[in-house]
Amino acid sequence: MADKNTNKPENNGQVADPSRRNFVKNSGIAVGGVAGGALLGGLFTSQFGKKDDKKSSSGADKKPEKRYEEARMFFTRFADFAILEQATERIFPEDKNGPGAIGLGVPYFIDKQLAGPYGNNVKDYRQGPFTNGNGTAADSSLNRGEIIINGLRKMSDESMKRFDAKFDDASEEQQTEILKDFEADKVQLKGISSKAFFKLLRTLTLEGAYCDPLYGGNRDMEGWKMKEYPGSIASYANMIEEKEFIKMDQISLTDYQPK
Amino acid sequence: MAKMLPKTDVVIVGSGWAGGIAAAELSKKGYKVVGLERGKAQVREDFIGSKDELRYDSRKVMFQDLSKETLTIRNTTDEVASPNRSNDTNAINGTDTGGSGVHWNGMVYRWLPTDFEMLSKTVEKYGKDMIPKDMTVQDWGIKYDALEPYYDKFEKATGISGEPDPLRPGQRSSDYPTPPQKETEIIRTFTKAAKELGYHPYRIASANLSEAYTNPDGETINGCVYCAFCEAFGCDFGAKADPIATVLATASKTGNYELRNNAYAVRVVHENGKATGIKYVDTETGEEFIQPADLVVVSGFVFSNTRLMLLSEIGKPYNPKDGTGVIGKNLTAHQRNLTHTRVRGFFDEKKFNRYAGTGALGVTMDDFNVEQLDHTKLDFLHGFCLRTSQRGDRPISNNHVPEGTPSWGPEFKEKSLFYANRRIDVQQQNGALPWRENYMDLDPTYRDVFGDPLLRVTSKFHDQDRNIVKYAHQRSKELLEQMGADYITVPDINEDTEFDKTSLSDHTGGGVIMGENPETSAVNNYSQVWDMDNLFVVGASSFPHLGSSNPTATVGTLAYRATEGMIKVLENGGQLIQDGKETAAAK
């Protein structure tokens, strides 16, 4: 499965395109389930190495752009990040409308958020005693970064227990089943409810899909394009009264802010 | 040991609408005024290029810094309260120059004549048995007609764009300073349906101005460009009336106003029944100061005002067991998981430009407000406005889908994209009446960064609160049916619906309430503390209850009234009201 993992030392030199890795896995499921994940991955490798790969999120004709900002700031173990990638893709999957969480850069967005003030609850009230009163991520004595790590590892434990497969090697259906059980609070987590962990993960995923691209999510404004959201348009004064829907090109803060 | 600073005429805690209005009016009169603002300095340039949903709306960087101070919350007096730790669940309390007035949506409503005489009007119409046990509703000690000139003054200072409510003829002394904002297809759709049902829709009055306007103090506010970044944002274009663009600018021009930022007020200092100044901490250096003044004004958010009174041991703390005492009494709110729930209509064939808009761009109606209803046939008191507004949907916070759709996964993605622009919401906002055990006091366990007890909120819902919202949701649903919505989602409010222990709402009132006499209220109708003549506590803390619409105009109105009182006290001293009548000092 991990053959396209360019974060692993033996694969260095390749350009990371996580959406391809996801496609490999999905294809694996289509052809025969999880058991042969690594094998299938191997079979598909050469095919996906081709420049004209239609499944690439960066389009048919473009050479994949090297993204120097897509390295991990927060996650130390790649294994944790791999679970995060698959979990966010289940929450916001690739479909006919366009890219899913991985193609939009959501995992790297989350990595950056957890490395910063939000992941460390810097603006929150953090004095004890903690009673986890409202069962939200902020009410936990763990910070958001710790919550995500613990939750992802628990998801992997559940996957091993139930399916004898790592979470990121499990089938989409199996991954979804685990996520649903976390959402329904059916799994015991330390320091927070699995429901509150899932809520945080879902929130971060949507934030990564739709934030300004400056944060590393919403890659190429594809999230906004799918939603027909124009972004940072200076003024709508000339069209606000129109009866019909008006589709606009997207503007990011990079283009909007005065320099 | 706190350092004693040179004395000034007036010291004001807070630089939002209440503190800003006091600063402008007092400094224009020539008084030397020092303002203390717990947050950082900010100017208009800080908002240029700030269309960033994640930073401002999701991460809420313009809101209170909870690492310094927060609330603890519980439903009932036999529970242990726990702290509200994050701005994810916090009320949108402001901080920094201009306070919440900088990141408001800009909806401006006048409250109804009945609001100010809620107890006597209800008893007069229905008899005293109509008031539920444990509802601590009371009159404000002033009537609408006496407040009308101050509403007018606030609207002129802010240039409000609007049109009169057809159900309230004769209640305005003059027109809105600027005409309503532009009309959108969503507004047209709501208006048409409401008229077809025989209602009286009119445009929501807006502080996002329809055209450039210069106020009587010479401050100019620009015309709105409908860019869709109002709530939680400062205005990129100087087109939203906020304290920075209006009253603080006026105060500043006089040369008599000094605003100190990063100055966290921790006590009202007092001696022999007279306020002598404010003790504050400079949060950049950690130093403590006392700013002495002839007149002291406390004008923060409800929570700050109430907590400062309790920490300073001024006035008698309210006791919910026997109803004695006043500080902390009559906490009310337009709670987010009750009042602020919305009925949503989804349209398969209609697509609206939902990404465009402004905070107060919309249409409203008062056909179900307190004065229009016959309460003998209903299981609630007061009433509500219905409305729709087009704030400009931002993509992270707007992922609404018809009922029955999962909240993530393939179907969620498909439908949240499909309906992103195919939706109209109808929102109700109801009067929030006070209850004996909904109140504030000091928490026995949790402390702030300075070592002082946090403020504790005790609040739960009653049948009245749920009944009015359920009734309003049904009226909202009928409106959406008339508009032709294909799917309508009505929030499930049932007897188990309870206050969810977030920090209430940006619309919160009470704690230092105004009234007719010192036994049942903390301040008189000038917001002057009954038992400390040179201390004024101004803001939504004065509200004995919340009306059925947005509170900011009423905050501004009471602030103009209060400032008139302050000037009288600076000139003559003394208590302005005795036995319900204005004293010689007030003349």
TrEMBL record, chain A:
A Pfam family reported for this protein in Swiss-Prot or TrEMBL: Gluconate_2-dh3
Domain of life, source organism: Bacteria
Species per Swiss-Prot/TrEMBL record: Sporosarcina jeotgali
Membrane spanning stretches: 27-45
Designated name of the protein: Gluconate 2-dehydrogenase subunit 3 family protein
Region entry Disordered, spans: 1-21, 45-66
Residue stretches of biased makeup (Basic and acidic residues): 49-66
Keyword entries, A-Z: Membrane, Transmembrane, Transmembrane helix
TrEMBL record, chain B:
Organism domain of life: Bacteria
The Glucose-methanol-choline oxidoreductase N-terminal domain, residue ranges: 188-334
Transmembrane parts of this sequence: none
Pfam families (alphabetical): GMC_oxred_C, GMC_oxred_N
Bias (Polar residues): 78-95
Record flagged with keyword Cytoplasm: no
Segments forming domain Glucose-methanol-choline oxidoreductase C-terminal: 436-559
Ranges where the record places region Disordered: 78-97, 157-182
Keyword list, A-Z: FAD, Flavoprotein, Oxidoreductase
InterPro entries (UniProt xref): FAD/NAD-bd_sf, GMC_OxRdtase_N, GMC_OxRtase_C
Keyword Endoplasmic reticulum carried by entry: no
Family membership: Belongs to the GMC oxidoreductase family.
Name of the protein described by the UniProt record: GMC family oxidoreductase
Native source organism of the sequence: Sporosarcina jeotgali
Phylogenetic classification of the source organism: Bacteria, Bacillati, Bacillota, Bacilli, Bacillales
